[in-house]
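Example complex used in Figure S2.
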Amino acid sequence: MTDFLVETKDVYKWFPIKGGLLGKTVGYVKAVEGVSLGVKKGETVGLVGESGCGKTTVARLILRLLDTTKGQLYFDGTDITKLKGRKLKPFRRKMQIVFQDPYASLDPRQTVGSALTEPMRINQIVRTRGEAYDEAKRLIRVVGLNPDHLARFPHEFSGGQRQRIAIARALAVEPQFVMLDEPTSSLDVSVQAQILELLKDLQKEFDLTYLFISHNLSVIRYMCRRIMVMYLGAIVEEADTLGVYERPMHPYTYALLAAAPIPDPDKRKGTPVLQGDVPSPINIPSGCRFRTRCQFATSLCAGTEPELEANEAGHLVRCYYRIDFLSKTVAERPMMRHESA
Amino acid sequence: MYFLFKQNPVVVAGSVIAVGSLLLALLSRFIVDPNLWQVENLGQRLCWNNPAFSWPVSNVYNCSGASYPLGTDSYGRNVLQMIILAIPLDLEISLTIVILATIVGVALGSLAAYAGGKIDELILRITDVFFALPALVLAIVVMVVLGRTLQNLTIAVLITWWPYYVRLIRSQVLSEKERPYVEALRSTGASPLRILFLHILPNTIYPVIVQMTLDIGGVILTFSALMFLGFSPNPLLPELGNLVTDGISYVFTAPWLIIFPGLTIVIIVLGFNLLGDGIRDILDPRLRR
Amino acid sequence: MLEVEDLRVVFHTYAGEVKALDGVNLTLNRREILGLVGESGCGKSVTALAIAGLLPENASANGQIILGGRNLLALSREEMRQARLKDIAVVFQDPTTYLNPVFQIGFQITEALISDRQIYERQMINQRLQELEEDQRRGDRDSQQIEMDRAKLQHSVESGKLSRGEAKGLARQIALEYLKLVQLPEPERIFKMYPFELSGGMRQRAMIAMALVRRPKVLLADEISTALDVTVQAQILALLRELRDRIDASIILVTHDLAVVSEVCDRVAVMYAGNVVEVAELRELFANPLHPYTQGLMAAVPRPDRSSVKLQSIKGSVPDLIYPPTGCRFHPRCPKAFASCPSTKPPLIAVQKEHGVECLLYG
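Predicted assembly (993 residues):
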């Protein structure tokens, strides 16, 4: 287990909903429920799901931008769940994040150079201002821009360029782990290709570990080696790329793949598999959280929620059944470990 | 941005007036002897001898001797000189109040926004209490309690004014705090103070500047009103509201006493208002982008 | 059905003249879904807005947009407004900002029908009569009921005019029909709901109903699925496919997503920097992309159904339209550019029947 660079153990995040005159807690937004994931050094792990699934919250929790309600977070073996302030700072620089919106992720009143050198100064990576500037020049070249861009302001750049700047800023503190939260979702397709290639090159050059979060199944497939599918706050399937895309086991994964349009006129979709809307994390269904939309749900599913268990080596799924989606046949899985518990 | 500035005649007019009055305020001591307001010249009370205009009022007393372009007041002082002395006084008090209110606003507003929870609630409730009390009444009460000095007048108006800034800055900081670049800064290990002063506040400064500019005029009106209501520390004090108060009793016999100081108030307040409005207009489309 | 000829749009801004559209040519046939695809800044939304007559104050448009024999660009503001009421409908990307939060959905849908009653009376009555006929034919409702409704309508026709109350009732029935058409469950309940009570997908359907209720000839859908989750997007796209068969309108679908285009469209026009650089029937375009930009775009798109070895990106970035490149606007980024490209703007060359390219490589 210690070969995970970043690890979460049974992490929960509930946001209280206040109501009434006295501000009593009337309910919870259960954004993340019992998420245990691990990212090995040098890996690119994908976290995929639709809105409300909790993937963004997981990212914030791992980076300690939010506190967990329950559960532990580990970085390189150390428990960082409760660390604060000065004790947290050395870990902060080892984990960085690149956001979705390249326009909002940079302080509009700061020059690019300043945005790059500030993290260096905060973390005392460099000794003098000159050193900081030289580093900034190096970084800006690494991401494919040139040094005279350092004096300019964010609004003078295009979306793709700003994202490059954001990546350079993340690299400025020499992190080991970079969280990529929908980094190309607001970029054009051709720019997306450039940024994805850049990210791949940087990973090799700087020995980085990535957690790639997206709702875009094509991008996830391209970038990630191992993928976790989230639904309503929990991981419902986890496997390597081919396992998820070619042999999905969870009905939700299957529905996602069935819904994702393919740029090929010969591969048009039929009737959508999943009807209705993405539910809200305030009212999570009892038992298996997916059962209200699952075409294979039975009374068993309404009881206790299934655990995330390995169906084959390295392929975990949170479902009581083994389903053949093409023929729509269902076989009951042999009950696994939790019986003996 | 300068391009937009030139395009907007409102802003140009406003800033000319505003800058003009500030300049006048700075230079006034070279134009008029600052002690003149204490000199009474009862022989020349309430007279007018500016040939350019004659008042359609009966019994306009004609001054003798020196020329008084805007007439004299009830103490025989040159109204024009009094106005020139009054402008720096008004502006000084007004700027003091506005700047102090902003400082308090920044301190409490940022604290409330950043700390959240109970501290935020506490500050909000206190602010609400002050909002609930009518400003003028509150100022009057303070004056009655503390006594009639210029300092207390400043304090009184300040007390009624700071809640607006706390609210304004709190809401600005709250919304800015959630922006992704703040999260990015937190993830690099920046301390909350650093983020607040180096990043959030500079980005939220514009609405505050607009509010300050607009309030300069408002504050002048408020303490002029207070003076008018009888809280002037010294009836001779060269303050625009005071001058107007002086002139009220002579509205039909010496209308220039109210008109010119009153007009000055209007112009200055208008100037700063236009400036503030104009700044807001310039900034708004830019923000909309 | 709709012809766009040599459409040029320039935005007059403080920073300069943005030559957003540089001679756009499009044809929209009856009952087809035309995809208008391109990246940001290519002018696809501007084209849609121009057709709808919704360009902002600082834009000037030249050229011809011919609908029903009239050039829309030559119409007065009032005439254009009428045209928008009757013939052209637009559905936008974010239903949250385009629906008024303080009015019920039903009210918003019927608003246009009721406020311009003179235009709609005849249409509403005929529409309703038609629908009643269909109901009868399909045996959906009790024929006595249908006869009663029909008699009521006939009476209104004879008495000459619809009262406001009658118009409201009629509009409501039509609205409910369309809410059903866009597959919203329990249309009567939805009619009375406010936008915030609906989910994103349902709001988008409501907007589509709002657009279709006026029986437009042209429906412009501007990135309608972009803001939606992938499962909801699949539903909306399936809905569009169905609607095309059931309503008598032509749809222009504006999107940046080639996969969406592939799902829904019959013909596709690819735009770059203010020009339509390639237009073809769907299968033909994907099987045989001719323009270097189209080829670059297709090579840059990752797919969920296969593992790509490497994504090809197009070097450079989208040009500044205040100072656009001369000649062919794509030439600075084009891997196949040659000597004449910077100086000559390529005309639309018909490489095959129904496959046109604006590229000097082909003519």
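The radius of gyration of chain C is 23 Å. The mean pLDDT of chain C is 85.
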